[in-house]
Amino acid sequence: MFVIFHFDFLVRALIGGLITAIVAPLVGIFLVVRRYSNMPDTLAHVSLLGVAIGIALGFNPLGVAIVTVVGSSIGIERLRSRRALPSDTLLSLLLSSSLAIALVIMSTVKNYSTNLFSYLFGSITTVTANDLFIMGGLSAFVIALVVVCVRGLARDRPP
Description:
mainly alpha
């Protein structure tokens, strides 16, 4: 029954899934209350834009994706707080435009051999030990941030 634990890639997949299972609902609670239920999908497409930019410029795609996602998250929150657009409209615009720009960038990159959609959809069985360290570090940061800011997050109401 526990034969699957003899395979390293399955153990890494299980650990990665557990990390995600702990952090996703913790953040998701606040996203739903603030009417940001499309945020995860939007940030996934924004991260694809970051990957495309990283590959096109020859940088680490993961690093550029993280910077792109954090920057767009801050921008989304600033626009939301100014009430420039409703949050669902803002997220929909960013989702579709970032996917379109990523596809345009990747169509112009020469000698690109990796499937772009493998970055968007991925496979949990391809998680590496380095990925687990990154996931663990970012998850610890997110958990600490939620613990420190929980009163402000719980008090903040949608517009």
